[in-house]
Amino acid sequence: MNWFPKNERLLRIGVIVLCLGDIFLVLTQEMKNGIFWDFEVYRRAVSDVALGLNPYRTDVKHCFVYHPVLLDIFTLFEYLNLKLVLGLLYSGTLVAFGFTFPRLKEYAFELLASVAFGGFGALAIATGNLTLYLHLALLSVFFLSLKKDSFFYSYIVILLAALIKPYFLAYLFIPFLIQKKIFRKDLALLALGATLLIGVIVFYNLKAPDQIHSFLSTLGYQTVSRHDFGLSFFNWAWLATKNIFAATLAHFFISLALLVFTFCLRFRKTRFSNLSNLDVLLVSYIVMTILNPRMKQYDLFPALICLFTFCRNIFKELTLRYIAVALIAVSIPTAVVTLIKTF
């Protein structure tokens, strides 16, 4: 495949330079305190448990805000070396994503742009946060499901991910949007999965009620007291109104409108009714991600991959020009902020 055809050679080289420049600016600023800093958050929580301390304490820069079930899993991994196990899992997920991503070489520029755009992808990778790899694992299984014409394994991954991040349950809408119906075997699996999920939650509430209380308290502190709502509509609404109720109401109606819009596109007779299953998956994933009331950079990055890939499918060669303009637009404020912080 010729990645630098004569008619687009300068444009493509320009896109690569912009991408590398964006990535460099972000990493120069963000990596002063090291890389994969979320690894240390996980290890510190495990260490606190071993020392009899509260793993959900708030006197630290980065609080541990995951359900105790993940804390137990991390404690088990620590016997083998937590960093090594997570490193292997992350590497395996990236390999799986690369193998399952449709026509990987064809979308190389879109993938590079998604890493660079606003620095969200580069920052998401630099954090070492588990959530990014949950997204990539789910996308990998979704891509595989399109080939197999069965979403059985997608449901399993969603339910497992929901144990760690309940928001992943929203992605259960995607198979329905693609298939336009729900099969009995899917309902049976979902019922079983929901039962097990509820069972685990009830078990932990009975087994460690104090730890559950600490977890919920710290989660509330991290999100509300520290205003850590990420890049979501909720956050922008809160910044505009400084009112939690108004922000919640705004996020709810925006989310509802996007959901209705997505379902109408799929089920009403429009030009989008004839989208390929891959394109429906990409659009659905973008929508379900941006509905997250606490969308962080490691949530947005996979959605950007879907967005740029979808745009390439719809706009073909024009997409690269749009990407170039978008990269220039986001590069300017990123460069300004970096220069201000540096000097």
What can you tell me about this protein's structure?
By secondary structure, the chain is an all-alpha fold. The protein has one domain. Helix content is 74%, strand content 0%. The protein is built from 16 helices and no strands. It has helices at residues 9-30, 37-50, 68-78, 82-100, 108-116, 120-127, 130-148, 152-164, 173-179, 184-207, 209-225, 233-241, 244-267, 277-290, 297-315, 318-342. Helix 13 (244-267) runs antiparallel to helix 14 and helix 15 (297-315) runs antiparallel to helix 16 (318-342). It is globular. The model has no long low-confidence stretch (mean pLDDT 80).
Give a brief description.
This protein has helices at residues 9-30, 37-50, 68-78, 82-100, 108-116, 120-127, 130-148, 152-164, 173-179, 184-207, 209-225, 233-241, 244-267, 277-290, 297-315, 318-342. The protein has 343 residues and is mainly alpha-helical. It has one domain (9-228, 314-342).
Descriptors:
343 residues; mainly alpha; 16 helices; globular
Query: Average pLDDT, to the nearest integer?
Result: 80
Through-space gap between termini: 44 Å
Largest sheet: none
> Could you give the count of β-strands?
0
Share of helix among residues?
A: over 70%
Give the count of helical stretches.
16
Strand content: under 5%
Gyration radius, to the nearest Å? 21 Å
**Assembly of the depicted chains:** single chain
- Summarize the helix and strand pattern as letters: HHHHHHHHHHHHHHHH
